[in-house]
# Entry
Amino acid sequence: MNSETQSVSAASQSYPDRLQSKLRRVLVSWELLLLCVAVFIFWLNTQASPYFLDPWNLSDATFNFTEKALIAFAMALLIISGEIDLSVASIIALSSTAMGYAVSIGMGTTELLIIGPLVGLACGAFNGLLVTRFGLPSIVATIGTMSLFRGISYIILGDKAYSGYPSDFAFFGQGYVYWVITFEVVLFAVFAIIYTLLLHRTSFGRSVFAIGNNPTAALFSGIRVNRIKFILFLLTGLMAGIAAVCLTSRLGSTRPSIALGWELEIVTMVVLGGVNILGGSGSIPGVVLAAFIMGLVTFGFGLLNVPGIVMSIFIGLLLIGVIGLPRVWTKGLHFWKSIVSR
Amino acid sequence: MNETAQHSDSIKPLLELSGISKNFPGVRALSQVSLELYPGQVTALVGENGAGKSTIVKILTGIYQPDDGRIDINQKQTRLSSPQVASQVGITAIHQETVMFDNLSVAENIFIGHAPKNMWGLIQTKKMHQDAKQLLERIGANLDPSIELKNLGIASKHLVGIARALSVNTQVVIMDEPTAALSYKEIEELYVLIERLKAEGKAILFISHKFDEIYRIADRYTVFRDGEMIGKGLLNELKEAELVKMMVGRDVTGIFPQRTGTLGETVLEVKHYSHPTEFDEISFSLRRGEILGFYGLVGAGRSELMQCLFGISESSNGALTLDNRTLHIKNPTQAIDNGIVYVPEDRGGQGVVTGLPIFENITLPSLNKLSNRGFLSLAKEFSIARSYSEKLELRAASLDQHVELLSGGNQQKVVIAKWLATQPKVIILDEPTKGIDIGSKAAVHAFMRELADDGLAVIIVSSEIPEVIGMSDRIIVMREGLMVAEYSKATVSPELIVRDAAGIAEHVA
Amino acid sequence: MNNWRRLITRDVVLGVALLAVIALVSTRAADFSSVKNLASVFNDSSILIILALGQMAVILTRCIDLSMASNLALVGMTVAMLNSNFAAIPIPILVIIAIIMGAMLGLVNGLLVWQLEIPPIVVTLGTLTIFRGIIFLISDGQWINAHEMSPAFKAFPRSSILGVTVLSWSAIVAIILFAVLLTRTAAGRAFYAIGGNPNAAVYTGINVGRSRCLAFVLAGAVSGFAGYLWVARYAVAYVDIAGGFELDIVAACVIGGVSIAGGLGTVAGATLGALFLGVIKNALPVINISPFWQLAISGSAILIAVGFNAQSERRTGRIILKKAEQSS
# Structure
């Protein structure tokens, strides 16, 4: 019949790598939007307080986000893969408690630096096992371990606290590497680069994206879905352990309530950074920018003597706003078109 | 039946679609189609996968809005703006399995959305159960209305669906491949039921791939092909061959590419392959350059066997030898490393990773080969992706286009490209042309033959008889998880494999 | 045999486990199982029960509400301030204000989920911090202490009707209302349908977005109500009340067998889940275990419950082989 219509003209087709120029892709990227927000808040801060631009003040400001951001990097990968870990703050508590205990039986800084991350790793392995081996949904499994890990800290510590950390241990949370550059900032920068490379330049990172977009198709493409998810839980636990070292060192003491509520702040940071909470997309530079934004907001409001709790309103609005506004925009556009076409 | 046919010209259609068009990004799903459904008659909607049948069902049930065209119900123009509206005007769809709630009871499934309420607006559970019981009895089903649906088989679920259709005083019943997973006895019971619905004056849209079934139960036909309405009329005025020709748009025979190469040595040898629940005692061998076809009805265990060969599940017994090496394949990674790859039937769910661009899909299984100590080289990825896109004549604007924007046929090409990039020895294609347009279909067929002629061993699983016979050098028929017959190209005939697959021989003998 | 299986539901298992815990504790402290003590445990768990029921409605529709505790705190602070500034407002009016205000806050969540299609976890993570922040704004960080509240305000949840406190009655009424809502109304059954099979729900003409919005409004309303109960019972309101409680509420649901994947869960289950946490909290001091064990125990309970749920939800695949079918 009309089979002539199936023209076979595809043979001469050429395939450009990309349809959009690099410039265009940058222009429409989430990261650029975040950068604008960050610059704007930075500018607001300079207008609001003359003390803001002081290098030492800015250096202080970094403490607001470096530790959380360390975890957020690993959490970003985990969320991109379609899972989540709500137990990270409790891992900090347990890891910090373990370090406190180690000090109390006379161990030194070197041992602490091993114990902290190791406990984090063990907690991550436990989470990973629950999710990949026993097939529990990660959101509830890690709500469970969130109670469990912090609960163990409470059992060990009760209402007491560990302190008396060795004086050279203080470097990891309070020390300066050069001038106003703190050790934590260096750690933050190093891990930002490592995670950027890991997610965006390696086959591991590519697999993470594939799993988040479609775990079944990823499995059918020969990707070891469970193994990669397990590694991601391990990484998240490890980062929480490292953050525990920094935080414990900075505070100089351990209470079981340490880092309470951080899990939600970290997830907020990751989502604000453009990571899709349903998995499949996101970037580490986005998370870095989100960390800066959250740090700047906290610090700027702090200089203005606005309490931290109020800045949380701003963060909450930002979170809903940045995700909701594009949809308001498209919805509004639709509405407008429907009116015009009538 | 003859009576209704004779008078049908005087009957006005209950539901009339005209000039309906629907576009999706990159795909024209429906173009100016029309469809009429008459009260007390069954209209069969015939068409290959991807002809636009499911789109029209979604339009009728208010899920999709047509871009163009009009819908008349009882000669009154109607807009089916939402599923609520569609069900209010009396259109109900009975799908294969999707439209049911496993966690609700039978009675609730029947009455969801319109349960009997008391003066306080509360659901009258007791009355609902009684009414459900009555409806079920009316269609001859003996089911406990309080049982949760997940405890029922598919045939019983259909009955619940039909009871639901009756409960809302439905005028139009859409049955989308209702017999796909039913046994003979259950299909016969369904026919009785359809006759009863006809007697009650319902207009029935019956979607099926099985021609015997269509001629048995339907009064009228409408044929869709590539999103267009090709023909319609009374079935008793049309021969089956003509209907097939309308559906396919060409003669069924003589269009498949023929083998030019010679068969090489045996690559794959499978002996006594078994699985606890899916299949048993499967033995076959496959030679280089050969295309081996697997035919069977839906649920015969073919896909399960193939997925087991690919490492998705583990076999419980038996041996697999590849190039004279015995392997125990535990996961897909291992299968791919050894050169066995699988193009799944569920293209969107298991084949392509939607959300990732074309080139990332193509390189996904070869990432380890393409990376240097884990680090990727985009240049290498693009060059691999480009060479296979050219080879397969992929239609795409660029290599970073997301695969969900491609048509079904081109998505399939992406899946095949990703496997060719791994340089496999054995490629298994599970329903490779399901849901893709005719042009791409021919291209996939030609390409399959080319692969075999290049020395690859090919397995094709297909439910389309022309395809499986036309493409295969040898055909194995499966039924209920067992191998029931094997034919060479010379000895096979459509009648034979249909009988084997359905187990008719046993009934006759 | 089959009937037996149908009778042994998750709820029964959980109920038996709860009784076992109570019996076990009673071997160490006999009066733990006295009616008086059990009534006080129930009274103590009432707020959690009420909240868990609201959360369950949301989870049934495949959503989650992490803002419930913040909603509770914001409404609690609001009614406490109203009471301290305008002591003349009768308590029933305050309760109604609390419920309406909570429902409005829930509506914010619901509209964002429905109209803007933002994932519920993101929405409620946002409103969680926003609601908390607003408390600070309206209270200026000040506490409302017992002496600033009117006696009637504090006494109402403790006052007794037929020997049972109003607080306990609130939980009982909530249980009944939710049982009726979820089993006997179209809206409630729609929650189950949406969670069980959202695509099919669309086909059957259920408006998925609107139903979800309704679930959030319900969760908000009970949060608001619980807000009044909380500040009146503990006779104090400040920014951080019920901090972190949002996850306890989810935990109660999970222990109660409510599937986080939606569509599965019963009022009895959620109630028992909340009671389970309440019993453990009350039992520990009685048997001389440090209350610091509570968190770890409830964490383990969550993990066991989720593991149990995952096991029982695991579907058996289609069986093709005849012999396998017969032997199963």
Summary: The domain at 46-299 of chain C is CATH 1.10.3470 (ABC transporter involved in vitamin B12 uptake, BtuC). Chain C has a mean pLDDT of 87. Strands of chain C lie at 160-161, 164-165.
